[in-house]
Here is the input.
Amino acid sequence: MRVTLSWLEEFVPLGIAAEDADSVAELTATLADLGFVAESVKQVEPQAPGVVLAKVQEITAIPGADRIRRVVVDIGEAVEVVCGAWNFSVGDVVPLALPGVVLPGSQEPMQRRKMRGVVSNGMLCSGAEVGLAEDAAGLLIVPPGHGLVGQEVSSLRGLGRDVVFDLEVQANRPDGNSVVGIARDLAARLGLPFNPGGSSAVLSAMASGVSLHRGPSGAAELPAESEGVWVRSEDAEACPRLLARAIGKLKVGPSLPYVARRLGLCGMRPLNSVVDASNYVMLELGQPTHPYDMARLGGAGLVARRARQGESIKTIDGSSRELCPPGTQEPPCVIADASGEVVSVAGVMGGASSEISIETTEVLLEAAHFSALAVARSSRRMGLRTEASLRYEKSCDPWVLEAAIARICELLAESGSSHDGPLVGVTNMARQGSPVPLRQARASALLGTALADGEVERLLVPMGFSIGKGGRPGSVDVEVPTWRPDVTREVDLIEEIARQRGYSSIAPRFRRAEQVGGLTPRQRFRRRLGLTLVSLGALECWTPTIVGSGSQDGLGTKPVEVANPLVKEESALRTSLLSGLSAAAARNLARGVGRLRLFEIGRVFGVGEEESVKERETAALLVIGEEDVAAQAVLAWRSIEAALGLQRCRLARTEAPGMHPGRCAELRAPDGSPLGVVGEMDPDLAEKLLGVPRRAGWLELDLDRLWASPRRAEQVVAPSRFPSAEFDLAFTVSEEVAAYEVEEVLAAAAGSALESLSLFDVYRGAAVEAGERSLAWHLRFAEQDHTLTDAEVSSYRQTCVEAVEAAGMGRLRS
Amino acid sequence: MSDTPSAQEIIEQTLMRAEQALLAAGTVAELDAAESQVLGRSGEIAGLRSGIAARPVAERPHWGKLLQDCRARVGTLAAQRRAKLWATERAERLAGEARDLSEVLGEAVIGRRHAVMQTWEELEDIFVGMGFVVAEGPEIEDEWHNFDALNTPPDHPARAAQDSFYLDVPGPGGREGALLLRTHTSPVQIRLMENQAPPIWAVSPGRVYRRDTPDASHLPYFHQIEALVVDEGISFADLAGTIDSFTRAFFGEGVKSRLRPAYFPFTEPSAEFDISCTVCSGKGCRTCHGVGWLEMGGSGMVDPAVFEAVGLDPERWSGFAFGFGIDRCALMRRGIPDLRLLVENDVRFLSQL
Here is the structure.
């Protein structure tokens, strides 16, 4: 919402000059403290400085010239100029730029010129030339009473130096989308009167509380039909109030200078006196209205109803819109004229057929209250957002309609002749909700600050709330003004109290939890995993959760699809971290990076049984550019296993989607539960995902399972103080048997005296038969209470050898 | 008087010869040889000792003592000389092993946590220090937890397919409604309040999703952390105090916080919380668009409607919540100019973290 300082000043006597930067900054801060944060604060220069108002005294033809005339104007002295415009007559007051004046949008100062032998001592200006209108066809004619002869244009109302605040208005503050709404809050905060001054009878009446604070008393008494003008609402839900007024004897032209300028500064294009008046009042009071050209309507009646199948409208923006395409669930609310023709999309945009033009002489002005939901839905469905729809969506004050109509009539009268015709209306809603009880003690407790007696009243009443006696001791009943639909509960009033008092007036309190804070063991486990991966030289990545559906081909899991992805091609939730880490690797490889260790810890998703969605936390490590990447992945796993204190897991050879069929092992906890996979990515898939032929080591872990898998006891075993005995055993083992399987047999056979068991040599070659390899382990034994005897050691040795041979896993190599 | 030399003289001469021999030794090996020539089994002293038997009985003790002193004296001299030779030899040996350690090949073998994770954990640690626990919840949420329980109006824009990612799978239906990627971490708070009786002091960090087109300051997926406190007698003043403590702990002692009115469906009163600009200290600069304050996130007192949704009595319990972006904090902390750098995973970026 944009608002200018001079406009605010008309409602609240701030007494701030636009050039006073400190005061403007202070006002900006006050607005922010009230919840209206300025996205920008812009100083604007006076409008057309140097241009003065001149009264036309004499118009004469120039011999031989048929496009220009000689004009004598009075600016306190007579000035003779040459003018090419024809829309004015003697007695009109028009702007005059004297030599030396620089007009808006021009760099060159005005020069004295001679045309057809006549010296022009300046230039009479159009609205466009002084920057107040787009119409450059004729001179800007200032209506009587809006300026004195010889007065500078920039000293006219609203045309001086000004400040434009672009304010962010919270979604629950529809009143903030109006000048009066912001002014009212400011007046309350600053302790200033909320007083529109003498410029408008309507606004004075509003400020005195007759209608703005309380609404007009006679709302329900409006007739639905008067002197042939009528309204009807066939949809009380979407349009609970519909008012209309016929206004005749109009002469449509450029708007009053201050109206045009303020509209321009607030981001609306000035068009003509009628449309501008409607827009000006929308910005001022927050209530959209719509003027129809009476002559172009099919009669003097307006009907609010739902659009019917087959109906369409050409809106003012020039596009034709089908209102109710086949299959429409909830047709938009429209306004139709007496002939049944749709003439506007309710609350969104009017139709081109009844648009106001320069020829318009009589207007049917619609002021309606449309439900926020109805307008929001029409606007969304039609993809059309307008200043009006934005305001309706936030919900408008239903009881400001009469004032809005009166104010528009006032502006039209001000800019020229007009005749206010009959005012009609229908109302299908109750006037006021029930008062909201407020306990002062509750307010003090929730805010954490003691409110003084009378403070609640002092803060709320200037904003239009009224306070009555409550039903219970310590409680008051607060009547909420009609422009504050956001306030329905006690807590809403408490927020208003805090807001108007200023959040900064509530002293911070430093209360602490009684509990001791901390991470859960599972959270510490995850952190330790992250640190272990870092210690293995891996860089942590953050990759997207929503990935290209094709990037997960060959991974075997059914992905969860997003119904409304940002990019159509990227609609799948990741089933693994593989696609994301591969993409990250591919980008780095493309830049010539040779060695990569990347990891990520994050959630992956899949469709489980019966279409249920499964969410898992996983960790993955990708190794590229190192010797024997599969082995590197295994070594990384061993470090993780040790760092997390896991019991020794099995690496069971397996085939998994996306993995090298011969170089993949499932990690299994001692109880057999799968924890993840380790090995090498399928080389073809790796080449496809990485963009270059590279071998990629891969380790992927399921954190929930990892966390649940058995861990080594926290208690340690004190090392034996007696010497250890050690020996090596080498077996020829079939390629069909995994090393870990032999190792498990050895460990079981060795018994409790075994201190350590490690595979130290793998040999394939001439000395062993094809289909076999030699595996050599180093075993170390110790007892807690004595030095091992030779007999004991040789018995351990024998037991181990016999166990492996008995299991048929291998033969001792001699 | 015979002119045969006295015991004293013989020993002194032996000593002198030994001393010369020891000093002449240039290596430990030569020293060992010289020493054994005097002290060894067939050395001079051994020779003299075997001669004692031929001496008169009265002289024998005297000879014995002199020989013992001589042996001790030679031993001391040899040890001193040996230490000196050892030192010299060691110095020569080690000098030969000298190398330029800056010519060592190879790179550091340590990885890095991601900037977002570092910030995430730092934030967790600060809140843990303030007595909070860390709560987590699913990234796929149902409408009830993500919107309804948080008092989100039926027509709130966040619910629209324009703003949130809905999933193309049937949701649980009923009260829970459709499934979507959570748009904030607030549903974790709902789950907490559903499952745990107050008092609650918890923060919930996590990844959240909004349908924003990626640019320098937006990503469709990002990370948030939210604090929730529910207890008896919790007030807006406690909210202000907690935010203030957090701000100083994370951004530094000189950084101030302020609350200003805002609207969120799940809090009332609601406040936007700002911190004084960390670049210009509040004087006004480009980073803060000249206003001296940076918008951090939303906050407020838990709306009674939220308490009612989870079955807590708003007359008994009160609470506050506040939340903000983790990624943005990482950007500020690390001077990262563009959010998209965080997801590019360029190793030149990652290895600086």
